[in-house]
């Protein structure tokens, strides 16, 4: 039997607690998971069972949300992140990583964090979850994939200014991104021979050098030089023609050159069901593709759809691994 999924609480002042409760209500009979956080942060009336290990969560999940209790020093007020609680938020993530690395949990799913609160309260030194998880796992390079039933897309560069992309986008970076994506598709998604499509950097993939030279100078030669019997790579393709239905049928994942080139198509195609997946870690990690949504926290109106999809995908990936 596949062990349950560990769900770290994220910032409890955001929508994490309420979407966790809603996700449990939806998935309790089909996708066991345990919540790593403070049970008092969950919506009033949520059936809760305190556990000390994921193994206990397997049977309990059908009747109550299993909670691995974490202490938080300051009161939690929805919509108002409390820096004093930052060490506990970080500890929740660390506990989840420990559980999945030991095999006690099959995967880690992470609720959204509030980076400023973590910086202010704990001197958090990472741009976000992805980089922190890479450090905990001892990995120098990981890849962020956004996945849904309609599209899997990977941005080669992520949270940097558009003006910085050409310098940051190196042959080494693109090659590593392609390799990690191919390995992730095989190992965690069960795609035997992955097909990867690479977008161009410039409009119309440079249009023969008239709109930019990077495609001619090194992107196309790099793609042509990649020789691997276990996957295929095509491109560089004009990004504006890569994401319609017929084009998507020709690849298993697309690699985009920068953040918006990747995220605009998936959020347009499947806004509520997109899932953030970290490839290149020695364990499975998924996350809902949204933030803490402080403006609606505690109001009971947050949709759990992305978290539900993140938990379901984590379970599917664990069963495919």
UniProtKB/TrEMBL annotation:
<dbReference type="GO" id="GO:0042823">
    <property type="term" value="P:pyridoxal phosphate biosynthetic process"/>
</dbReference>
<feature type="binding site">
    <location>
        <position position="259"/>
    </location>
    <ligand>
        <name>a divalent metal cation</name>
    </ligand>
</feature>
<feature type="binding site">
    <location>
        <position position="204"/>
    </location>
    <ligand>
        <name>a divalent metal cation</name>
    </ligand>
</feature>
<comment type="function">
    <text>Catalyzes the NAD(P)-dependent oxidation of 4-(phosphooxy)-L-threonine (HTP) into 2-amino-3-oxo-4-(phosphooxy)butyric acid which spontaneously decarboxylates to form 3-amino-2-oxopropyl phosphate (AHAP).</text>
</comment>
<dbReference type="GO" id="GO:0008270">
    <property type="term" value="F:zinc ion binding"/>
</dbReference>
<dbReference type="GO" id="GO:0051287">
    <property type="term" value="F:NAD binding"/>
</dbReference>
<comment type="subunit">
    <text>Homodimer.</text>
</comment>
<dbReference type="GO" id="GO:0008615">
    <property type="term" value="P:pyridoxine biosynthetic process"/>
</dbReference>
<comment type="pathway">
    <text>Cofactor biosynthesis; pyridoxine 5'-phosphate biosynthesis; pyridoxine 5'-phosphate from D-erythrose 4-phosphate: step 4/5.</text>
</comment>
<keyword id="KW-0479">Metal-binding</keyword>
<dbReference type="Pfam" id="PF04166">
    <property type="entry name" value="PdxA"/>
</dbReference>
<feature type="binding site">
    <location>
        <position position="130"/>
    </location>
    <ligand>
        <name>substrate</name>
    </ligand>
</feature>
<feature type="binding site">
    <location>
        <position position="129"/>
    </location>
    <ligand>
        <name>substrate</name>
    </ligand>
</feature>
<keyword id="KW-0460">Magnesium</keyword>
<keyword id="KW-0520">NAD</keyword>
<keyword id="KW-0862">Zinc</keyword>
<dbReference type="GO" id="GO:0050570">
    <property type="term" value="F:4-hydroxythreonine-4-phosphate dehydrogenase activity"/>
</dbReference>
<keyword id="KW-0521">NADP</keyword>
<feature type="binding site">
    <location>
        <position position="267"/>
    </location>
    <ligand>
        <name>substrate</name>
    </ligand>
</feature>
<dbReference type="GO" id="GO:0000287">
    <property type="term" value="F:magnesium ion binding"/>
</dbReference>
<feature type="binding site">
    <location>
        <position position="276"/>
    </location>
    <ligand>
        <name>substrate</name>
    </ligand>
</feature>
<keyword id="KW-0560">Oxidoreductase</keyword>
<dbReference type="GO" id="GO:0005737">
    <property type="term" value="C:cytoplasm"/>
</dbReference>
<protein>
    <recommendedName>
        <fullName>4-hydroxythreonine-4-phosphate dehydrogenase</fullName>
        <ecNumber>1.1.1.262</ecNumber>
    </recommendedName>
</protein>
<feature type="binding site">
    <location>
        <position position="159"/>
    </location>
    <ligand>
        <name>a divalent metal cation</name>
    </ligand>
</feature>
<dbReference type="InterPro" id="IPR037510">
    <property type="entry name" value="PdxA"/>
</dbReference>
<dbReference type="InterPro" id="IPR005255">
    <property type="entry name" value="PdxA_fam"/>
</dbReference>
<keyword id="KW-0963">Cytoplasm</keyword>
<keyword id="KW-0170">Cobalt</keyword>
<dbReference type="GO" id="GO:0050897">
    <property type="term" value="F:cobalt ion binding"/>
</dbReference>
<comment type="similarity">
    <text>Belongs to the PdxA family.</text>
</comment>
<feature type="binding site">
    <location>
        <position position="285"/>
    </location>
    <ligand>
        <name>substrate</name>
    </ligand>
</feature>
<keyword id="KW-0664">Pyridoxine biosynthesis</keyword>
